[in-house]
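Following up on my earlier message about zinc ion. Here are the inputs again, as you asked, copied directly from the submission form:
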Amino acid sequence: MGQKLTLKNGAEVEVVPTSSELDACTGCGLEVHVPKAAPGQEYELPQPGELSLCLGCGTISIFQEDLKLRPATDAELEDILKRKGPRDQTGAAAFVQLERRRG
Ligand SMILES: [Zn+2]
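Thanks, got it. Here's what our run produced:
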């Protein structure tokens, strides 16, 4: 049993009382959960364009308009690495992902 939420961009998503299972990791299929809000508070849903760093495999995915995940492009990964730096957890994940793609 879910509840419909309308996002700022007009997209509708369904959330469940304790967490919102938006989509699965593009790398390992682990479900993405959004932390539950305290009673009376808004759910903190990700915004389209935000990145998701999988806790299972470290894959970086990007939330689309409908909050489904898509793999980050090479350009996006390079941008993340540039902004965050290799010592940041997200930057390091971007670095690993780029290296993997380049073989
Ligand atoms: Zn994963």
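One observation from looking it over: The pocket of zinc ion is lined by residues 25, 27-28, 30, 54, 56-57, 59 (CB under 6 Å). Hope that helps, and feel free to reply on this thread.
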